[in-house]
Amino acid sequence: MPLRQQIQVKDNKEGPRFALVLLSFAILIFNEELPGDPTRYTPLLLACETGKAESAQVLIEKGANLGIKTPASDSALHLAVQAGAAPITNLLLRKGMEVNLTNRADETPLHVAALHNKAALVSLLVNAGAKVNAVTKELVTPLHVASQRGNNEVAQELLHHKASVNAKDRQSKSPLHYASEKGDKTMVEMLLNANADPNAQDKEKRTPLHAAAERGHLSVVRVLLATKGRLGVKDMDGCTPMHYAAIKGNTEIVKLLLTSGKNKNIDDRNIWRKTALHIAAEYGHSDLINLLLSYGAAINALDNSKDTPLHCACKAGVFVVVARGRRAPVLQGIQTSLWRL
């Protein structure tokens, strides 16, 4: 049986013994790529990737080089963590393997644990000296990864080990931005309970509330508002969370934003001086138009082009707004602007 196949089969009493016999006759293969193996892995790397603890132990005891990496620059420790192989991970650490080795993307084994939801290995790595706030080339921490992937148990472990909850990556996004984008209410609550800033702004000056409102995550919007997420924060385009909810025609989120802010942000303008009503009209969101008007949105507000919401609707070809005017009381208000065309 070829060594590759022997390592890949389930470990049993014969497995390590057979590997030992082969290795006794072919000592040089310890640190050589397996013949015909497209991954170009050494036997130890393969044993780590497949989580074969006894085979890995035999190889290490017989002198396998712990420093060899895969073509992607993953170490044996990266592979063992990805496989969730605690015995191999522990063995490698006991043999003195560097716990903060990075691969081509500057990911440490702790990043890999966060990515592949290996919560049981987080404490093992941190207690062995893993940097809980290690960053990749994109300044991504393990907590960013766990938050983006929705790996709640990993995030909980990282926070227990004092991971920086407000760390920002190269896009200036915090873990809370990613959890809010994903709509992961449990993760959002966990991060907020760990003192995440609900009003942190990314590179485009968007807050987690912008992200949740844009993607229609009502429950997350509610949680962020309950923890003093600010309604009127504007991004680089001058858009508030309400502008983004208006683009999607999300009446529930807009209503929640209106009631939470006592309507004071209803006529906020972006850099084109468009209100949420302008946007709702452009996209033909009739239900949202009705809602905004019922809350007192400025019907004749002018944008940079001197257009009212009705002008915007007509320019966008949303003629249904005008056509329904006489029969829909709220839309009759819009028709009063028709005489200005």
TrEMBL record:
The keyword Repeat applies. Transmembrane segments: none annotated. It comes from the Eukaryota. SUPFAM superfamilies: Ankyrin repeat. ANK repeats lie at residues 39-71, 72-104, 105-137, 138-170, 171-203, 204-236, 237-269, 272-304. Keywords: ANK repeat, Repeat. One of its GO terms (cellular component) is nucleus. The keyword Repeat applies. This is Uncharacterized protein. It comes from Anser brachyrhynchus.
